[in-house]
Amino acid sequence: MIFTIEHLSKRFDAKEVLRDISFSFESGKIYGLLGRNGAGKTTLFNCLNGDLKADSGIYTIQDTAGTRTPVPDDIGYVLSTPTVPEFLTGREFLKFFCDIHSGRIKGIRPLDDYFDYIGIDRMDRDKLLKDYSHGMKNKMQMLINIIAQPNLLLLDEPLTSLDVVVAEEMKDVLRSIKSDRITILSTHIMDLALDMCDEIVLLSHGVLEKVDKNNLDNNDFKDKIIAALKEETNV
Ligand SMILES: Nc1ncnc2c1ncn2[C@@H]1O[C@H](COP(=O)(O)OP(=O)(O)OP(=O)(O)O)[C@@H](O)[C@H]1O
User: Where in the numbering of this chain does the ABC transporter domain appear (predicted)?
Assistant: First the structure.
């Protein structure tokens, strides 16, 4: 499967954030999206997810069945600040999610299997989500996106606020599900991008640029990325 963006542009009043972006992403890979604060990473994700209307742009998914426009079920989006219905318990939320998507979730499992998989303790599963920690809410958000099995998984700074143990667990989860989908992960943490991602893509000056990491050791590669990002002026 290939997900292609063609001529995506987005401006807020006078500020041109995304400038005629054209780029293709391949299934089975985790892409690390690096960009400075305000470069437009969240704007890009919001446009791809349909939460924000782009000024122009065409998206297509190409697979064995042909080429088509993505539908909402193709896309999963994990926000940097997790949003969950705080008035439900973890179990109620998961049950509700599975019930409303039962027609299209493949191989639905008992709820406790999912909690085990994502590492939510038995004693926390029937607590209200409002009493979950930030990391636990983040895990729940990740979990529903894993259950939904989207073709395109967008992760906006997903690991930044997690403790080292949870972050390692989440990395393993993401690696274990990457083969069937395109994962795009935005991060400020270069070591995370180098550790996790098959491809590094810079968002700079409103355009996406793939950085070739072949033939460079990690230090050279980091220097190259920082040099490219330093060139970013306030667009
Ligand atoms: N709704 C909006 N209205 C006006 N300007 C906006 C809006 N959303 C984003 N912007 C502007 O677009 C630019 C890109 O913001 P965005 O949040 O996409 O950057 P980012 O790369 O995700 O930043 P960070 O890494 O700091 O989270 C910023 O200058 C921001 O102020």
Answer: 3-230
Which atom of ligand 1 is found nearest the CA of 46?
Answer: 18
CATH code for position 112: 3.40.50.300
Q: Break the chain down into helix, strand, coil percent, rounded to 5.
A: 40, 30, 35
The answer, yes or no, to whether ipTM is higher than 0.95 is yes
Domain contains 235: no
Nearest to 10 by CA among 37, 33, 43, 38: 43
Which of 57-61, 223-227, 230-234 is the least confident region? 230-234
pLDDT > 90? residue 45: yes
Q: Whose alpha carbon is nearest atom 16 of ligand 1? A: 40
Distance in Å, CA 223 to ligand 1 centroid:
25
Indicate whether 180 belongs to any domain: yes
Take atom 28 of ligand 1 and give the residue whose Cα is closest: 38
Q: pLDDT for 63-119, tens place per residue?
A: 999 999 999 989 999 988 888 999 999 999 999 999 998 888 878 889 999 999 888
Angstrom distances, CA of residue 156 to CA of 17, 62, 67:
17, 24, 27
On whether residue 108 sits in a domain, the answer given is yes
Residue 162 included in any domain: yes
Domain ranges, residue 14: 2-230
Amino acid at 115: F
